[in-house]
Amino acid sequence: MAKLKVGMIGGGGPGNFFGGVHKRAISLDATRELVAGALRSKPRQALNAAKELDIQGYPDYQSMLDACSKGDLELDYVTIVTPNDAHYAPAKAFLQAGIPVLCEKPITMTLDEARDLARIVKRKKVPFVLAHTYTGFPLMMLAKEFISQGKIGEVRKIEAWYNQGWLATPLEKSGQQQAAWRTDPKRTGISNCGGDIGTHAFVAATWTSGLEVKRVSSRLNTFVKGRVLDDDFNVIAELSNGGTALIWPNVNVQPHRILLWHPHGVGQTESWRLYPIDKNAPKLVKDAQRRYMMRYGGPTGVTESDDMENWNYAFPASLGTIAQRLPYNFTMGLGHDYKDDRMPGMTFNYRIAEENQRSRLRRWVEFMEASSWDDIYPLNAKKNTDR
């Protein structure tokens, strides 16, 4: 099957991490590829940014759309990763041209603009997708399944948090790109903290529970002197089933761990890390995982920060001239797995390999192809049969 061809608007240049992240995500499952982009607001910078990502560059989104109209460029959809004030115009232009759009949240700066896009989508029958990153996280999806199946009972109260501390000081005054536009009401809209990360907490509460919000009572604070928009966001909401949701930025949930952040003042934050481990795993495995997690993310752990630095260098290196000429080795470590009677499944004890990643992808395929939870966990199926 041919890969879907994707165009990207925004996300380029130094200080902007969106372009590289989206390119990696687009190519993750080999069904799509990023082929073109208008990545910066200034034409020359846009073209240079495209060269860095090794894609066809355009000085602006209109030029990319014109190329599509002339038949010089074929796109299956475009993804918009610009600051908030630059969502509406390109989304409208491509939707009117019949090209599907995936847009980073928020949809637009105003409700009228969002309604206009909705009318175009309905009239043109063109797909439009609003991106909320965390709905793709395995723990989020698992939570949604548990709740929808009634495994936790009736949802009476939801607490959703999202913590970030990088704007605890007037970073925008230093010229830092991400801080500058997020704290500018002309570019980000009516809210900074609530609109940027509070929305993630809101989606976590409503998407996982399947409930809607009927009424809200909110308090937005601005603690940094001279800042116009909020840098603290708190909401009490009434849910459609009569329950209550408390929504404020304070906790970050990641695919393989839960992080709890407890700020104790500027520059002082206490971090709790909870790592889920299969309760039925052999003691040998539990002990090994406990030791690994303590080294990885404990008070003296250095692996996590070291890994991120390695990845930051490894990805640009893979785009280099020499790396592009050489074939990738997709067989690293194959044939080194073995059966250990003390543990279920296969064991792998080889210093450098990709077996762990392959195993995870195999498990992902099982999740995607399964028709029920019993297919994924055969032990559960046996228990259900016995009952």
Distance between the termini: 44 Å
Q: pLDDT below 50 for ≥5 consecutive residues: which ranges?
A: 250-255, 380-387
Q: Report the β-strand fraction as a percent range.
A: 15-25%
CATH architecture of the largest domain: 2-Layer Sandwich
> Helical percent range?
25-40%
CATH level-four homologous superfamily name of the largest domain: Dihydrodipicolinate Reductase, domain 2
Q: Strand order within the widest sheet? A: 3-2-1-4-5-6
> What is the overall number of helices?
15
Main beta sheet, described? 6 strands, parallel
Strand element count: 15
- CATH topology type of the largest domain: Dihydrodipicolinate Reductase, domain 2
In total, the number of domains comes to 4
CATH hierarchy, class of the largest domain: Alpha Beta
Helix/strand structural class: alpha/beta
Which geometry do the CA atoms define?
Answer: globular
Average residue-wise pLDDT? 82
Element layout with pairings:
Layout: E1 4-9, H1 18-26, E2 32-38, H2 43-52, E3 56-57, H3 61-70, E4 77-80, H4 88-96, E5 101-104, H5 111-124, E6 128-131, H6 138-148, E7 157-161, H7 177-182, H8 185-188, H9 193-209, E8 213-221, E9 232-239, E10 244-248, E11 251-254, E12 257-265, E13 268-274, H10 283-297, H11 303-318, H12 321-325, E14 337-339, E15 346-348, H13 355-369, H14 373-376, H15 378-386
Parallel strand pairs: 1-2, 1-4, 2-3, 4-5, 5-6, 7-10
Antiparallel strand pairs: 8-9, 9-10, 11-12, 12-13, 14-15
Helix pairs in contact: 4-5, 6-9
Which key features would you list for this structure?
Dihydrodipicolinate Reductase, domain 2, 387 residues, six-stranded parallel sheet, four-stranded mixed sheet, alpha/beta, Rossmann fold, 15 strands, 4 domains, 40% helix
